[in-house]
Design brief:
about 60 residues, mainly beta, OB fold (Dihydrolipoamide Acetyltransferase, E2P), five-stranded antiparallel sheet, 5 strands, about 45% strand, globular, NA-bd_OB-fold
Length: about 60
């Protein structure tokens, strides 16, 4: 799993922008991944672990 920091979290739309720990472009965790992980209360600045699938999208997310 990779690690990153929550840059943006939208509680209404249920998505999060994650900045990878090693740098690079931010990634988006969408509603399905956030609901599956029960992370409805993420906070900006919180550290998370995540997996990226073959098309470059976050496929799984959890608290670090």
């Amino acid at each position: 799993m990779a690690r990153g920091t929550v840059l943006v979290f939208d509680k209404q739309q249920l998505y999060a922008q994650i900045q990878p720990e090693g740098g690079g472009e931010s990634l988006t965790a969408y509603r399905a991944e956030i609901e599956a992980a029960r992370l409805h209360d993420l906070q900006v600045g919180e550290r998370v672990n995540y997996d990226v699938d073959s098309d470059g999208r976050i496929s799984r997310i959890s608290r670090a």
